[in-house]
Amino acid sequence: xxxxxxxxxxxxxxxxxxxxxxxxxxxxxxxxxxxxxxxxxxxxxxxxxxxxxxxxxxxxxxxxxxxxxxxxxxxxxxxxxxxxxxxxxxxxxxxxxxxxxxxxxxxxxxxxxxxxxxxxxxxxxxxxxxxxxxxxxxxxxxxxxxxxxxxxxxxxxxxxxxxxxxxxxxxxxxxxxxxxxxxxxxxxxxxxxxxxxxxxxxxxx
Length: 205
Hints:
By secondary structure, the chain is α+β, with helices and mostly antiparallel strands. The chain has helices spanning 2-27, 52-76, 78-92, 117-125; strands at 101-103, 142-155, 158-169, 174-185, 191-199. It has a five-stranded mixed sheet, covered by helices on one side. It is elongated and about 70 Å long.
């Protein structure tokens, strides 16, 4: 008999626990107001949330810029290519905000990492005595870029991508690199690269 009472008590407690939120919700008053209007006008909006389409567009723009620098060099020489590369860096990367964590494909110690704009420019177009080993990666006659993402991780105002980038030069030679980018959305809603790691795929000897 004692066991039966205990079971009934537990059952009652369970029913009361489940039913309580329903009672409270049902008794919550609904406030209606006809004195509030929101005027839909052209209002400045800051939206730091990044979308997948923005990430893909930023990657496409990077590939197009690389081809543009290469063709500019072939057609108009190093000065024109360097000028274009500088504009690309200012538009695509985040050096205005501080360092960029840039580890290019073909760099060697002690200048492996290019955390400054000058280092990035030297990597892309060379011709900088401060970076004597740089031959100008963007001057390689590139004509086509294909980007294949293994994954995209978006969190608020940053997005990280990892995958392969396949480059084709004017002679049809193909180079594939492993690449990781991280993008940051600035106050103007523009995505900027703040992390760029690139390396040749591992091959067994």
